[in-house]
Amino acid sequence: MGISLSSFEYDSVEYVSGPLLFVEGGDRFPAGSLVEITDKKGGVRLGQTLEVSRDKAVIQVLEGTSGLGTTGTTVRLESDIIKANVSRDMIGRVFDGLSRPIDGKPDVIAEARLPVAGFPINPISRSRPDEFIQTGISAIDCFNTLVRGQKLPVFSEAGLPSAELVISILNNSTVADDSKFLVIFAALGITRREQSIYQKNLVTGDRNLIAFLNLANDPVIERLLTPRFALTVAEYFAFELDYQVLVIMNDMTNYCTALREVSAAREEVPGRRGYPGYMYTDLSSLYERAGMLKGSEGSITQLLVLTVPDGDITHPIPDLTGYITEGQIVLANHLHKKGVFPPIDVLPSLSRLMNNGIGLGKTREDHRELANQLYACYAKGIDVRKLITIVGEDAISETDSLYLEFANRFEKELINQGGDAREINQTLDIGWDLLKDFPKEQLTRIDKDTLLRYYSVILEDGSISSI
Predict the structure, then answer these.
(1) Which CATH fold topology does 84-356 show?
(2) How far from the centroid of its chain's Cα atoms is residue 127's Cα?
(3) Mean per-residue pLDDT for 287-296?
(4) 175/298 Cα distance (integer angstroms)
(5) 306 - beta bridge partners?
(6) Would the pTM count as exceeding 0.70?
């Protein structure tokens, strides 16, 4: 990280707790400063001043506290804050959680060094997100459209293929000007197996992609810094080099667990379910780094993946994330059990900025109305499916049978797409094909002029009849 250290040394370590050192003489340590910690065997590791009082300083050790004790440990002060080296040469590279190369290639020569804490975006300077990002996933592009500058979470559960969904989006997402499109991926607390899957499937050589991989056995403090390194690099490319940057972070639940662990080591009074009371503020400091600036061609869009503990949507992690972000994509167990990939349930999913990024000149003029009609028909089909469990399939009407068949085809043909990416026009065309079995009188969510242009029925002789 290119850190230079001063000559001030202290050996007054009071005690060690988890990933933290408590050092006497706290008034000598500036908050947020870097320190170099040397153990009694001469091993050196880095730390950051987390909290300062008159009597002591709390230092978070970036590389673990194993081997550190109250005797034989020295702390040398650095009067700087943690900064990230950023460069155009980072494109196509894979780094660890502290932005150190792990792809076997040389270190990156820095073009600039920026504080990883970032800078808050003045709300007055923000511009309104209004451009479509194509993920290649029909359930997102059609019903929960991702808009440039938006922050949109994906709510998953244990056992669902969120990693496979992330890989598909990493390799297939595009914008109108793809030459200035950059994807930055931050993996938080992943296993060695997941690391192998990511490194095998990331197409770094064929597109603009930068990856930061933090492993489950890496120090917990590193997990708290990984998204900040990723977002600092994103800010450089977006607001200095005018790139349109998509930042994907997986899994934010591991990040929050690390935050709780550090809070417990600091002996803080716990909040809901043991998580610190300031978790909302901490998450906001990450999520609010997404956006667009007036007068700037660049932007930062965030797609945040988190595993909902026990599937409880009221858990503090999804609950607070939902307050800060602009919608949610929900993965469902019942679709996964049917073999649907990606198992996205469009009914509880939502993108609050969708209307800003779709329509004529962005996706297609029929997008909004078609999505509304498909959603309504699917919701009706799900209601019929529930009714059958009570009265049986023989008791439902012919119209109900039509909606039931639509719901089955909707999941099988539109939501389910295996490992293939779809262009938005292909997704919308599949939607029209699903509606062709309905009489036009039942398609009440679509304007008459739009029906005249797009609605058609395949006749028995194979010809197409448009109304």
Answers:
(1) Rossmann fold (3.40.50)
(2) 21
(3) 93
(4) 12
(5) 155
(6) yes
